[in-house]
Amino acid sequence: MEYRTLGRTGVKVSPLCLGAMMFGAWGERDHDESIRVIHRALDAGINFVDTADVYARGESEEIVGKALAGGRRDNVVLATKVHGTMGDDPNEFGNSRQWIVREVENSLRRLRTDWIDLYQIHRPEDDTDIDETLGALSDLVHAGKVRYVGSSTFPASQIVEAQWTAERRGRERFVCEQPPYSLLVRGVEADVLPTCRRHGMGVIPWSPLAGGWLSGKWRKDADDLTSRRAELLPKRYDLSLPANQRKLEAADALARVADEAGISLIELALAFVIRHPAVTAAIIGPRTMEHLESQLTAADVELSDEVLDRIDEIVPPGVNVNPADAGYDNPALQPEALRR
């Protein structure tokens, strides 16, 4: 497996990053089975693992910590995130100094480690000054608890604001961004990805299989298109909505492109993401060993210009087939922000 440099850090990471969201109550509840999947990924050459405090309220971090115990920690680039609600107290959430310096200790404990290689802000927060956030993160870097800091699902304007603030205030800067990016969710190509390239940031996209839409299950002639996610996230999965019908049509067309290219739709989807010049690694999120094995082969897949042109015909560059998949609800577009 080839290794790539994460932004300008000099740190080498695999082009596939193992995402741990599906380990624990949100997916595979058997800790031993999740650990088997993690160990298989490491044995296959993946050296990059991403989780978050909010995944199953810390259970995912605990599983990752168990998996890396016994000598595996030193050779893994370990990433986690902070921001999501972790309790009933209104301050157990967000991007404030108060919460960050408290929650990093919880993550370190759950992960059974003395340091986090990449500590990311999971979402932007309008009522917290970015300098407040970067100041807290910088202190963690200087204390040796965190090596690098990054952002996740930040719009381009806030990526730039964070870079300028870091330069002007002498803060540690975000070295990478984690945006949603897939064959069906290409909006970040218009602004976020070029912005990251200009600032020398790594890019580690989440949901390269579009939340399962590119797993091969979603075909127009499939017998069963029911999904538990349709009840939880109807805007993204309910097929009665025109935007999701468009996703189904696009997923079906992309599957035919993969078939004609002699690869699986999973391989097409992952190869597409990791071959973008701005992308460092795609975050895969297997729940089972079968899921993992079906994704590992994508690291070696090359896509021809003909295949890429056909993809562009199905989903044009810079377009999200369903705007609800953007991963971030801009507060500036909410009614209370638009009406005096």
Explain how this protein is built.
With 340 residues, the chain is an alpha/beta fold. It has one domain (4-215, 267-307, 314-338): TIM Barrel. It contains 13 helices and ten strands. The termini are far apart.
- Annotated CATH homologous superfamily: NADP-dependent oxidoreductase domain
What is the residue-mean pLDDT, rounded to a whole number? 95
Rough shape? globular
Task: Give the distance, in angstroms, between the N- and C-terminal Cα atoms.
Answer: 55 Å
Largest sheet: 8 strands, parallel
What count of domains describes the coordinates?
1
Summarize the helices and strands and which ones pair or pack.
Elements: E1 4-5, E2 12-13, E3 16-19, H1 31-43, E4 48-50, H2 59-68, E5 77-82, H3 97-111, E6 116-121, H4 130-142, E7 146-152, H5 156-169, E8 174-178, H6 192-198, E9 202-203, H7 228-232, H8 234-237, H9 242-261, H10 265-274, E10 282-284, H11 289-296, H12 305-314, H13 335-338
Parallel strand pairs: 3-4, 3-10, 4-5, 5-6, 6-7, 7-8, 8-9
Antiparallel strand pairs: 1-2
Helix pairs in contact: 1-2, 2-3, 3-4, 9-12
Short description, anyone?
With 340 residues, the protein is of the alpha/beta class. The chain has 13 helices and 10 strands.
Features:
globular, 340 residues, TIM Barrel, 10 strands, 13 helices
